Amino acid sequence: MATVPPPPPAPSAPPRIVNGIPENGDIPDIKQIEEDSSPNLSLIPTRTDFRETALWQPALHTNKNGDVVLEFQMPEAVTRWQLL
Q: Where is this region: Disordered (predicted)?
């Protein structure tokens, strides 16, 4: 019985790039990544209203279609609010 050599390996696919970094693990110059991805934090307003509870006493009036426009000042908490 004759032995057949194994087939050659398949050619490598080009690396997929996610957020500027090749997925195969080759990391480009880290300083360049930091410079490119540094957000300008001076544009973000500083939170000042840290109340834990917000009181809302609605007096809602609908239009002829039943639509309501709601304006409500909420504390600047890093959380989710649920209207009950």
A: 1-25
